[in-house]
Design brief:
By secondary structure, the chain is mostly helical. The protein is about 70% helix and about 0% strand.
């Protein structure tokens, strides 16, 4: 079945893999549907890396412009979502590097903003969790390192596998496992302590 033959209302029913193949073939509607489908979670993820909406929007736009420009050179992606998250992450860091003209300063900037990194406010609002538990969990997550927060966000809020997280964060599979194990251990210990203290 050709993508062009689909009615607009049916586009959303097609999987990412199908849309990706159509993009490679030069179907602009497939690119538009991928953008519509993934923009919100890419934007949320980007804001968790750097709290600058303009940089995040520019990074997402750049990723999709590049996808269209190089669509014929793309290879099949095992996980389109992971590919897009990786691309947006890379694009944000490239923009920070260009803005500061030094990669190290870009990394330092991210570290300084770690207090605001990986906010789970939007997630807590969506979940039916008591206010007290929400506050305890939010406080516990703030105690994690920036990399632990990123791993937790990708694993539990985006549903990615450890292999996909390893690619996105450019670390080994074992390092992802260690980050998540240590993060969960710290969260449990912190939540237990706060429960006893409360």
């Amino acid at each position: 079945m050709l993508f062009a033959c689909l009615k607009k209302d049916d586009w959303h029913s097609e999987g990412d893999h199908f849309l990706w193949v159509e993009l490679i073939r030069g179907n602009q509607k497939a690119l538009e549907e991928l953008f519509t489908r993934h923009h919100q979670h890419l934007f949320n993820y980007g804001l968790n890396i750097v709290s600058n909406r303009e940089i995040v929007n520019d990074a997402i736009q750049q990723v999709f412009l590049t996808l269209w420009k190089k669509h014929s050179q793309l290879s099949e992606a095992q996980s389109v979502k992971a590919y897009l998250l990786t691309s947006v992450r890379r694009s944000i860091f490239e923009q920070l590097e260009r803005n500061t003209n030094r990669k190290e300063r870009g990394k330092n900037y991210l570290e300084k903003r770690s207090e605001h990194t990986f906010s789970i406010e939007h997630k807590l609002v969506q979940d039916e969790i008591s206010q007290e538990l929400s506050e305890r969990l939010e406080a516990a997550i703030k105690e994690l390192t920036p990399r632990q927060k990123e791993a937790v966000y990708l694993r539990f809020y985006n549903g990615l596998t450890n292999n996909e997280i390893a690619v996105i964060m450019d670390i080994s599979y074992q390092a992802v496992g260690n980050l998540l194990y240590n993060a969960i251990s710290r969260l449990r210990a912190s939540m237990d302590y706060r429960s006893l203290a409360g």
